[in-house]
Amino acid sequence: MRKSIVSNADQKPLLTQFANASALLCVVKKGLKSDLSIFTLYFALRCARQWASAEFVAEQLWEGEFQLGSETALSLWELSILAIVQGITEFLPISSTGHLAIAREVFGLQAENSVMLDIALHLGSLLAVLLYFWRDIRSAFVGPFCLVADLSRGDPLRFQSRLAILLLIATIPAIVVGLIMSATGWDESVRTLEVVGWTTIIFGILLWVSDRFADRGRSLHDWRYSEAVMMGVAQAIALLPGTSRSGITMTAARFLGFSRVEAARVSMLMAIPVILAASAKLFYDLAKFGDVALGLDIAVAALLAFLAAYAALAVMMRMLVTTSFTPFVIYRLLLGAVLLWLAYQ
């Protein structure tokens, strides 16, 4: 049985909770204005986590905790940070898993107790990509109906019909591999800092090679069925933590000759069925446990992830019009180095 979302001991009135939240936000605002380096912020977060375990700080700042497992609890501000990190990094080719691994290190979370949170954060990311690419989503949605109409009349398949088939083909490998990994327990055994660190570096280098030497100029309308299979296999490889689903599918698209913007466009559309499949598992688990507190966790995390993911999508798509993937590659190399340092220290 999962614990309640709010501690039963010494609960304060609602106005007091809002006052405490306002005080916390003021502290954060002042900290952001100061000249703190990322390493100073890292150790400050580590200290904040230890302080948050003290009774007097819990009384002063925030008593509510979000339960993610039988032993793991997150305060609202910790959950907010994780949701924003997930939202920003989900669709950028920089490995959201790597960033969440660092966040777990900061907050002391156990990977097995935060898998549900990872999936919950994807819900907000899904809403962001649906809203940003709504025209392409509309084409994919009407695709099955167009396909039936085209086949019944013997007409050549329209773009909408082809897009629906292409997305289905590209999704199958990830679902099959995902089910195998879940059934065998491989999905948990590979969620280590070592694996995430090395995959972040290796697939970052592949992204640079594809962007530097591959042909370019093709668009979504040029996508072929055989290429959907290849990109689907690439997406299945992304189940290896640290690979970055968006990163490896953009890499595959660049090798196939898609322009940077169109590679990102195809990658984002491919994400939708996969996130839907992961969300279906989440709702199954939610119905199985019947835990209202878990549902509240999902609502808060999904909203924050949505806002962050939409902003990141807008920035990336505009950036790729004039900029290469090199900045993302450099960032991945630095991130991988940090992860390996954390893993082997």
How many angstroms separate the termini? 36 Å
Largest sheet: 2 strands, antiparallel
Sequence of secondary-structure elements: HHHEEHHHHHHHHHHHH
Q: What's the Cα radius of gyration?
A: 21 Å
Q: Please state the structural category.
A: mainly alpha
Mean pLDDT score, rounded? 76
Q: How many structural domains can be distinguished in the coordinates?
A: 1
Count of helical regions: 15
Strand order of the largest sheet: 1-2
What is the share of helical residues?
A: over 70%
Per DSSP E runs of 2 or more residues, the count of β-strands stands at: 2
Shape: globular
Strand content: under 5%
Note poorly predicted spans.
Answer: 1-72
Task: Explain what the structure shows.
The protein has 15 helices and two strands. It has a two-stranded antiparallel sheet with strand order 1-2. Helix 10 runs antiparallel to helix 15. The longest helix is centred in the last third of the chain and has 30 residues.
